[in-house]
Amino acid sequence: MTKRQRQRLIRLVMYALFFGVIALLVAVADWPVIRRNFFNVEIAREMFPRVLTVAARNTVFYTFLAFVFGLGLGLLLALMRLSTIGPYRWFARIYIEIFRGLPALVTIFLVGLGIPIAFRVRWNILIYITLGLGLVAAAYMAETIRAGIEGVPKGQMEAARSLGMSYSRAMLSIVIPQGFRIIIPPLTNELVLLIKDTSLLFVLGTTPATVELLKFGRQILDRRANATPLIVIALVYLAITVPLTQLVAMLERRNRRAR
Known about the structure:
mainly alpha
């Protein structure tokens, strides 16, 4: 048997193994039980329209708040990381290391429960949500933005300075806009991660009006003792995130063609 024939035989065996396992799972699965507990149409219908008009809307809104806050703080931290002033650089580096090393849930607990207990303050829940998610997102975005700025050829800055621009004006007018064009795909990935991280906000005790997708699904799961709500909210999450991941892929292809 030649090498090519052996490779073809191995490939056929792998195909047969894959479809054999699928056929076995289909044959042994208890479909009535699966349909009743995971795809109950009556329970799924009960979730609409609130799953979209309240839970999904809140999830997108919380993501937007955290993303805007994280982007602003991330840009500031990135510029501090690139600063020639040592204390700025050290502060930004320590911040990034701490918040990238902590689980997002710990940060949300610290902001949502630790601060109110320590300082006896009670803020609007949107502030806790924005800080809880945004502080962590800023650490990741800062490194992404820094990489984007460093990815701009140094000749761009030198050319701007030779035209008489100050360092700050050259950075704001020339370097940062080009850097952002480079980092749009990773920033979009960060947006997708933030959407998924909103599922951690249930620890803040959201109300029926401020509930996000996961807590909305869990409330119905607890009441009906059925997994269908989780399937429904998973589909809603995918309806939000899949277009964004496809957008990232398209932007990456466009960037590759532009090089």
